[in-house]
Design goal:
Blueprint: E1 5-10, H1 12-29, E2 34-41, H2 45-53, E3 58-70, E4 73-82, E5 92-100, H3 104-114, E6 120-128, E7 141-145, E8 151-152, E9 168-171
Helix pairs in contact: 1-2
Length: 183
């Protein structure tokens, strides 16, 4: 385990099992259709790479980059930093996100995508942290529901570090400047 972590919350084997299950559900639900996965950079990268390998329907990939976070506190102000390359008009869109916390990022993204006339839009998140939810967003696919702890690894960062860890871990208090609290 990395020295800055106090515990491993979700091990690599548990991640693999959970993602396989998600892939099977998604493949069944979208059978016969072409899916457009919209990954939310940068946190989605490891999850999306593993998820897409477990999806058997025809799949396109596109990405957006949003910003709402600095350090461990969500500021609630969301901006689009990088937009989709292709139109999603008439397409079945599945948003792929690392974690839904306050829900403000997803609320913004859903609104933004729905104005572009997709056939459908659903949300797939690796992690759901429902204890600090501010905006009620409909999550169709959840990998794991987690307690109100600041987690890193498997794509999730703290000040851009730890994304490369192959598991999800909880940062030690002294590695975090200021405790994570719901605002
Ligand atoms: P929300 O808008 O509060 O739902 O926050 C969504 C974004 O905040 C996620 O896409 C993450 O980038 C980031 N985030 C929320 N909780 C955590 C965490 O525990 N660790 C790392 N990033 C987090
Ligand atoms: Mg993110």
């Amino acid at each position: 385990m990395h020295k800055d972590l106090e515990e491993i919350l979700i091990s690599t084997p548990r991640l693999n099992t959970g993602i396989k299950k998600l892939g099977r559900r998604i493949s069944a639900d979208y059978a016969g259709r072409t899916l457009t996965l919209v990954g939310v950079l940068k946190g989605c990268v490891l999850f999306m790479a593993d998820l897409v390998k477990n999806i058997s329907v025809e799949t396109r990939l596109d990405f957006m980059m949003l910003s709402s976070y600095s350090g461990t506190q969500s500021t609630g102000v969301v901006r689009t930093i990088l937009d989709l390359k292709d139109s999603i008009e008439g397409r079945d869109v599945l948003i792929v996100e690392d974690i839904v916390d306050s829900g403000l990022t997803m609320k913004y993204l859903l609104r933004s995508l729905k104005t572009r006339s997709p056939r459908s839009v659903e949300i797939c998140t690796l992690l759901d942290k429902p204890s600090c939810r501010k905006a009620n967003v409909p999550i169709k696919y959840t990998g794991f529901t987690i307690p109100n702890k600041f987690v890193v690894g498997y794509g999730l960062d703290y000040n851009e570090l730890y994304r490369n860890l192959p598991y999800i871990g909880v940062l030690k208090k002294d590695a975090v400047e200021g405790k994570k609290t719901c605002r």
